[in-house]
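To assess whether the prediction recovers the assembly geometry, we first specified each molecular entity separately, as shown.
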Amino acid sequence: MKKLFLFILIALVYLAHQDLWNWKKADPLLFGFLPIGLTYHAGYAVLCALMMAALVKWAWPRHLEAEEDSAADKNPGPD
Amino acid sequence: MIPVVVIFVYLAIIGFIGAMAYRRSRENTEDYFLASRSIGSMVFFLSLFATNMTAFAILGSSGQAYRRGIGIFGMMASSSCFVIPLTIFFIGTRLWALGKKFGHQTQVSFFRDRWECNHIGTAIFGLSAAMLVPYMIISIMGGGTVLAGISVNPATHQPLIPYALGCATVAVVVTVNVFFGGMRGTVWVNIFQTILFLLFGLVAVVVISHALPLGFSDYIGKLAGDEKTRFLVTREKMPPQAFWSYTLIPLSSIMFPHMAMMCFSARRVTAFKRTVVAYPIAILVIWLPCVFLGVLGFAALGKIPDPDEVLLRLLHDYSPAWLAGILGAGIISAVMGSDAHQVLAMSTMFTKDVFAHYGGKEKFGEHRAVHFARGFIVVVTVIAYLVALELKEKQGIFEIAVRYAFSGFAALSPVMVAALFWKRSTQWGALAATVFVAGFLVWTALTQYHHKAGDVLWQIGAGKDALKVFFLNPTGDVAFCNGFMTVVPMVLGSGVCVVLFSLLTRPPSKATIDKYFDTTAFPKPS
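The predicted structure of the complete assembly is given in tokenized form:
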């Protein structure tokens, strides 16, 4: 169920990228100078960050962390 | 003169950081190429982002916005906000684990082991190297353009640092940094560089807004009110097919050898968590001001000979000299951050996938392999520099990138997906996809050379309802099915080749499949 929800989330965020309804519009201008096509996609970038935060929280590949222990022991550098 | 001094101070700092990294280095290839897989979380994000941001992100984006308007942000930047973090999340983390577990330092070494192949890996290396070189050239060209643009003498209108000298300066600083510091030197410098160019856009917008004779809203209103320039603040002249096609281009990111190497270099897989969340915001911070200033530049400056210089012209005309120098250093940071990784990746690939793979390491030893890598860095940079000079008058920054590197690497992404997630995939599927991508790129280049804008190569039907399968669009690029970019048939064709030829040929041994798909590396979700 969780996987299905996340899959739908990714699909919806992808579809939201194709904002055909803003195609020929400049208005409204955010702060009086930022056209809607730019404002929308600036917001879309934030939406992508939120989507990734959701994936990190609910779909993180924890099994890969098994490789970390040996790595940390081998490379304890401060970089 | 002041901007030039500021930029040279910046370059000296870069050199100093590289020297510090050299003092920490150890003479083995894992340390030289991957900093002993010890990159921490914050450094990983800053460096990975610097790896992906070229001169194009600042100069190319503003230049494209000047030509085509605000739609460039949605087409190129926000599509990257969606695709790149997803590929890092699903593919980058797996590459990290496999590199840690089996010692892979390049994509090709993973492919060779995963598919039990030898020369097919070399074919993938050859195509990747051929596509990476243009990307390196863009970086050097961007450096030359910035240094020439920022150093223009107001009295003579001639640059104090000519284009050729600017390219040489960037090439030398990057080479010295990578030559001595390897991956450690590169990522340390990236911390400084990424912070600088993340600040660039915001500072540039604030400074230019104060110096312009009119307000932002006046300029944007002027563009929106004129039928001839309205397309710059809408997307009415941007074909939706091209806009959609571009969402496939960011698939190239994870296939760039330097991006894969960065994934191998993280100390912990948890370093990817912060990176994938912060990545879209970082793109927003860089691209939004650059695209906006590109459009604004059209209103404020009018027609200029080279749109890729619109930002430099704005800085030159509307910011104090010392600040123009610092902002110029910000642009140079984007240029050199990615260029250093590209040079290092080329060197790593050649040393590990060719020199070591074909017996060089056994013959000359680990220590000599590092010397070989350093020699290769010098040779490849000199070649890239010479080509950058030759192509200056022939191709725009953006065109070279998209045609030869971005589309090609995006079309190789099905190969990586098959290697990581499809047990039944085979070396012959990978080879078929590689040959298809290489063939398509050669065909595209030849077609553009022999035909002119508007020529139809293959059409089904006639009249208004005709489907133009392949044709050259008004800018002279090969287009697909009434306006899609060629990346669409390339990715689809590559995917079909992987699936078809894998199903027709024998899969790798059970031992190899178990090795890569066992419960430790890829357990079934609980």
